[in-house]
Amino acid sequence: GEALEVNREVNCVTDFIHGCEDQLQKLKKQKEKGLLYGIPISIKDHINCKGHVSSGGMLKFLGQVKEEDSVIVQVLKHQGGIPFVKTNIPQTMINYNCSNLIFGQTLNPLNPQKSPGGSLGGEGALIAGGGSILGIGSDVAGSIRLPSSFCGLCSLKPTGNSISPPGCSDSPFALTVTGMLGPMARDVDSLALCMEALLCQQMFQLDPTVPPHPL
Questions:
Q1: pLDDT-based confidence at 169, cuts 50/70/90?
Q2: Mean pLDDT on 84-98
Q3: Which CATH class is domain 2-206?
Q4: Which residue numbers delimit the Amidase domain (predicted)?
Q5: Is 143 noted as a catalytic residue in this protein?
Q6: How far is CA 177 from the centre of its chain?
Q7: Does the annotation mark 66 as catalytic?
Q8: What mean pLDDT, rounded, does the chain reach?
Q9: Active-site pick, 138, 143, 164, 169
Q10: At what angle do helices 188-198 and 71-78 cross, to 10 degrees?
Q11: 4, 121, 199, 214: which has the highest count of C-beta atoms within 10 A?
Q12: How do strand 40-44 and strand 134-139 relate by DSSP bridges?
């Protein structure tokens, strides 16, 4: 409910992840509770979630419903996290603003006359507005870090190849810099907890290209 309130004000959510309520009920019945048990998690639009589109802010991807969760979404669920919304990004994701022709312009909740930054502008606006406590995005040249700066949040771009990268919509650019998935939150302790949860045996098994390593 809080996320929808924030979205009405700043236009930051692109999709509600159906099935998140069912996942919560399933988690309650499990004996082992993961490190992220019961935490609702917002996800950058281009990270694949089963049954949803990863638009990348581009019309060409709108008809392509994904058939399976990306590795990072599988691991978040394994650790008890509940991905519940996807959030807005600029078209092609290579922009310091957050606007596209599909979902429109996202505003900064701290000052609606300003941009929340990009490309993770939807995440920055949602978390800063109080609609999410933990978000997952990707960063090549500042996509996580810039919106965090614009919105007064904490974030981390992990070391290259430390987290499984597959399961994102294709970028139209050939990138020579390693893009990394990483967390965004209101405090550093939340980032540390998220990284501890992600760097687990399940991720290393699902993606053998990621070297097994502790936090």
A1: low
A2: 95
A3: alpha beta
A4: 5-212
A5: yes
A6: 20
A7: no
A8: 92
A9: 143
A10: 100
A11: 121
A12: parallel
Look-up: residue for tokens 């692109």?
14
Decide if pLDDT at 144 tops 60.
yes
Instruction: Please provide residue 144's backbone torsions phi and psi, each rounded to the nearest 5 degrees.
Output: -90, -45
Answer left, alpha or beta for residue 80, where phi above 0 means left and psi between -120 and 50 means alpha: left
Tell me the average pLDDT across 22-40.
90
Among 44, 66, 77, 157, the one annotated catalytic: 44
Q: 26 by DSSP, 3-state: which?
A: helix
191, 155 contact by CB (below 8 A): yes
Residue from 206, 208, 184 nearest 195 by CA: 184
Average pLDDT over residues 10-32: 90
For residues 63 and 86, give the distance between their C-alpha atoms in angstroms, rounded to a whole number.
Answer: 16
Ramachandran category for residue 188: left, alpha or beta (phi over 0 → left; psi -120 to 50 → alpha): alpha
Instruction: Specify whether 31 is catalytic.
Output: no
Contact (Cβ atoms closer than 8 angstroms) between residue 104 and residue 8: no
Is the pTM higher than 0.90? The answer reads yes
119, 132, 148, 155: which is the annotated catalytic residue?
Answer: 119
